[in-house]
Structures are given as structure tokens and as C-alpha cells.
Design a protein that fits this description.
- The protein has 511 residues and is α+β, with helices and mostly antiparallel strands.
- Helices cover 25% and strands 28% of the residues.
- It contains twelve helices and 26 strands.
- Strands 1, 2, 8, 9, 10, 11, 17 and 18 form an eight-stranded mixed beta sheet that branches. An eight-stranded mixed beta sheet has the order 6-5-13-14-15-12-16-19, with helices on both faces. Strands 21-20-24-23-22-25-26 form a seven-stranded mixed beta sheet.
- Helix 1 runs parallel beside helix 4.
- The relative contact order is 0.12.
């Protein structure tokens, strides 16, 4: 048992994508965690279909991006077409600034296995499979999790300082702490069909939304030769109408897909939800992923939002548990993540209207740019940003504060070339454009950053020489260019690569 009667610093309730992401992040920090999961086997159905460069950067921070990418395919593009072949809209992803392609097609069970294997690297992480969490009780000092072993019936209590509820949309933990999901369930049922590709068909690799008011279809290539269709049931259809493979096949045949093209290996039925918890933290219990929010699938951000939640809350738990920051830091978790999740939910709803041809004339007119102007980038392509939270100054569109810094290839002063994050480490770092950022700080400001273990790094361009052993060379010039775009000479970067402060608003530690 850990010090002062604790079995672990953090209890992770549920070991799906959000829970295993938290286990990796906490394990990488050396924070002790115990995870509880009913099922030893990974859920076999591929629910999520995509990850972005932001999510890949999260995986990079725990050394899993390369392994995960082996089971992914870069997304070639998106298109919205009608059944008669008319293209409504198409999108080709531009090169990203975060060190990865902007979008990847995945096969979720393989990604989860990679993440489980990753968490197994850490001695500080324990996973207890085959147990059901019966109760979660908390007091001023910690959380007590009571579990029952499903095989033996043995009841056991585990004591932790904090608990992360990663137990999905039907979260019992959320209910026990008195939080409800607010919102709606869309009444239409959808059948999700997964298949293995037998032979290529034209443009299979382009993620296609077949737009139709009655039978819209999501048609998407997944990683490792898998393919997925999501199709709504009609008002007169029920799940039982598709209880055999022979009954499912006509849905694909209507799309021109034959038994020579694919083998159907599974299908399931889902309803789409638009729901959000009003409180993501109740004392020492924090809601992560689907336990705190549910969104339609159209933006491909449901699972990813849970993973991002986990990485956001994990670095904050690290700082609080180490005594470097006050527990009030945990309140910034919801302040940052909830608006971001709401943003992607709104994007998903809007994309769904296009797919289902539900846009009103006013909405269609609003999408068109003024005559002679280029259309703005789709919201789905906006770089990662936060609008509130552990930030100093106003996180406006024109400010570097609240935005994620780019990740170019960079060189150490000793000439070792790596992606930028590999040179920054896992803590706080202040970056200066051609200047040691510590020289821009008042004595009390530097003392506060020193207390957080911050590094101070001058960024040089490739045509300059380094002056100290801890400097970094921005070979491509994109990081320096990004800073100059926002008119900043120095930025304070958090462990999750978001800018906490900039010299334009003051470089003091956010309060």
C-alpha cells in the first residue's frame, strides 16, 4: 500500500480509449494509477474511425505515435456527393504544422491494443480486469473505490487520491457523484457495417459522405484493409430486420458494393447523442471522455476528445500531486476542455446537416463567402486552441496564448535533428525568439517558473549559431515564423504544448 494508506495516486474507472490514454500519460509522469475494467478483451467493434495530428501529438508524448501509425492510413480527402454523382463539397487536407498528417484512418481495436501495450511499460500503472466498480465514495483526503471480482465475487476496496471516471456514456461513476448528461438522443437508428476488403473499387480511399435526406451514408476506409459504412434505418425499419448477413447485404449492394469487393465481418446498431455534463469535476472525481460528453460522429472527434481530455487532466494531476500547483488547477480542466468539446459537437452537427441535406436556405447562404473572396478554412481544419483556462491574457484569434505551438524538425545545439517535442521534454518550457527568455522575466516571475521546473530555451534560426548548450535551432523557420506572426518574442509553453503566456501579455505564471 502506498504512503499514508493510499493504494495509488489515481484510480482510473474504465479502460477504454480515455482510460488507457490516462494510464499512459500518468505512467509517463511516474504517477501511480490503478485502472478497473470489466472486460479483459478489447471491444471488437471499430467505433471511432479517425485521429488527427493533435491526437497523434498526444500519442507522441508517450512514445506511441510511430507504433500507432503502423496501423493507420493517411486520409486522402473528404467528399460529399449525392447518389447521382453530384459533388456537393470536397476537401483535401493540407500539410499540417504539428508534425503529422492532419488526419488518419484507423482501426480502433488495433489502436487500443497499442495503447494498452504502451501502458504496460509503466511499473506505476496497474490494471485490474474482470472487476466491476460498485461504488465510488470520496472525502476531503481521497477516493475509495469498491469493486467486485466478476469471477470470484470477492469485494475489495482501493484508496486513491483522485479518480478519473472513464466508464463511458452510461457511466455509473457519473451518476454516483450526482451529475447528469444534458441534451438529446437523436431518434434515428443507424446500422454500422464493418467489412474486410477483398478488392479495390474506384476512389475507395476517399472518405465519402453520400448525402441524401432519406438514406445518407458514411463510407470510410479504415486502417489495415478494413472498411466501414454507417447507414440510417428507415422509419419503418428496426434492428431485427437486419439480423443476418443476407439481410444486411442489400444495404451495401444499393451502394454498388458486391460480395466480390468485401466480406462483412460484423455490424451493430447505434443512436446518436448530443449530451454534455454540466460539471466535469466533483471534488476528487473528474469525468473524462464519454462519461462527460457525447457527440454525433460526423466530425470524427468523439473518441479523440476523450483522449485529449485524458492528456489535459493528467499533466494537471501531476502538478497537483507533486505539490507544485494548487488543487484549484483541476478546475481549469473543464474550463479548457468543455468549450473545445462543444466546438467539435457543433461542427459535427453542422456536417451532419450537410450529409442529411437538412441545411436551410439561410444556412446554405451563410456557408457561401462574399463574391470575390476565398472561402474560409472549414472549422475542422482550425489548429488546436483553448478559449479559457490556465492561461495569462486574452486567448483571442490574434493571440498566441491558448494555441498549440507548431512542431517542426529542429536541432539541438549539438546538431541532433529531431521533431521539436523530442527536444522540449515533458515539462514547462519558455521559448525565446533569438533570446534567452529568462532575461525577459522579473525576479519573482522567474522564481515562480523555477518552482515548476521550467526550462529556458533560446530558439535560433538555421542561419544563426547557437550560444549555449540548451538552445534549439528551428531549421525550417516555422516555429520562429509562427511566433512572429503573433508578434511575440517569447512564449511559456505547457506540457501539452499549448501557450500559457506570451510577452505581449506578460510571462508571469498564470494564476
Amino acid at each position: 500500500m502506498a504512503e499514508h494508506g493510499y493504494d495509488a495516486d489515481v484510480a482510473i474507472i474504465g479502460y477504454g480509449p480515455s482510460g488507457v490514454a490516462a494510464a499512459n500519460a500518468l505512467g509517463s509522469y511516474g504517477v501511480s494509477a490503478i485502472a478497473f475494467e470489466r472486460d479483459a478483451d478489447i471491444y471488437p467493434r471499430a467505433r471511432a474511425v479517425t485521429v488527427s495530428d493533435w491526437t497523434m501529438r498526444c500519442l507522441q508524448s508517450v512514445g506511441l505515435a510511430d507504433a500507432a501509425a503502423r496501423d493507420m492510413d493517411v486520409t486522402a480527402g473528404l467528399r460529399w456527393v449525392t447518389y447521382d454523382g453530384t459533388e456537393i463539397f470536397s476537401l483535401t487536407f493540407p500539410p499540417g504544422d504539428l508534425g503529422y498528417a492532419m488526419s488518419y484512418a484507423i482501426y480502433q481495436p488495433l489502436l487500443e491494443q497499442t495503447m494498452r501495450d504502451g501502458a504496460a511499460r509503466y511499473d506505476s500503472v496497474e490494471v485490474r480486469y474482470g472487476v466491476e466498480v460498485e461504488s465510488v465514495e470520496q472525502d476531503d483526503a481521497g477516493v475509495t473505490v469498491t469493486t467486485r471480482d466478476l469471477a470470484s465475487g470477492q469485494v475489495r476496496t482501493t484508496r486513491a487520491r483522485y479518480a478519473l471516471a472513464c466508464d463511458g456514456g452510461s457511466s455509473t461513476t457519473r451518476k454516483q457523484v450526482g451529475v447528469e448528461l444534458q441534451g438529446d438522443t437523436v431518434p434515428v437508428r443507424w446500422i454500422v457495417i464493418d467489412a474486410k476488403v477483398k478488392r479495390w473499387w474506384p476512389n475507395r480511399h476517399i472518405l465519402t459522405f453520400w448525402s441524401d435526406s432519406k438514406r445518407p451514408v458514411v463510407d470510410i476506409a479504415l486502417g489495415r484493409g478494413n472498411h466501414r459504412w454507417e447507414i440510417p434505418l428507415g422509419a419503418d425499419e428496426v434492428d431485427g430486420d437486419f439480423d443476418t448477413t443476407d439481410k444486411v447485404w442489400p444495404l451495401l449492394e444499393d451502394l454498388g458494393v458486391s460480395r466480390d469487393d468485401v466480406d462483412i465481418h460484423q455490424w451493430a446498431f447505434y443512436s446518436h447523442n448530443i449530451r454534455m455534463a454540466d460539471r466535469w469535476r466533483v471534488g476528487r472525481v473528474l469525468l473524462v471522455g464519454d462519461a462527460g460528453h457525447l457527440m454525433p460522429p460526423w466530425a470524427g472527434a468523439g473518441m479523440q476528445s476523450g483522449i485529449r481530455d485524458a492528456f489535459n487532466v493528467s499533466w494537471k494531476l501531476r502538478e497537483v500531486l507533486a505539490g507544485r500547483m494548487d488543487e484549484s488547477l483541476l478546475d481549469t480542466y473543464q474550463a479548457e476542455r468543455q468549450p473545445n468539446v462543444a466546438f467539435f459537437t457543433e461542427v459535427a452537427v453542422g456536417l451532419g446537416k450537410i450529409i442529411k441535406q437538412e441545411l436551410t436556405p439561410e444556412e446554405q447562404a451563410a456557408m457561401a463567402p462574399p463574391e470575390g473572396e476565398e472561402p474560409p478554412p472549414p472549422p475542422i481544419l482550425l489548429p488546436p486552441f483553448y478559449v479559457a483556462g490556465w492561461l495569462r491574457g486574452a486567448p483571442t484569434p490574434d493571440s498566441a496564448v491558448g494555441k498549440m505551438i507548431p512542431q517542426p524538425l529542429a536541432a539541438s545545439a549539438q546538431g541532433v535533428i529531431l521533431p521539436l517535442d523530442e527536444l522540449l521534454g515533458s515539462g514547462f518550457v519558455l521559448l525565446g525568439d533569438g533570446v534567452d527568455p529568462s532575461t525577459l522575466l522579473a525576479a519573482d516571475e522567474k522564481a515562480s517558473w523555477d518552482a515548476l521546473g521550467a526550462r529556458y530555451v533560446a530558439i535560433r534560426t538555421a542561419d544563426q549559431g547557437t550560444e549555449g548548450p540548451d538552445e534549439i535551432v528551428d531549421i525550417e523557420g516555422s516555429l520562429v515564423g509562427w511566433m512572429r506572426q503573433f508578434g511575440v518574442r517569447a512564449v511559456a509553453v505547457r506540457p501539452d504544448r499549448f501557450v500559457a503566456a506570451a510577452d505581449t501579455y506578460g510571462l508571469a505564471v498564470p494564476s
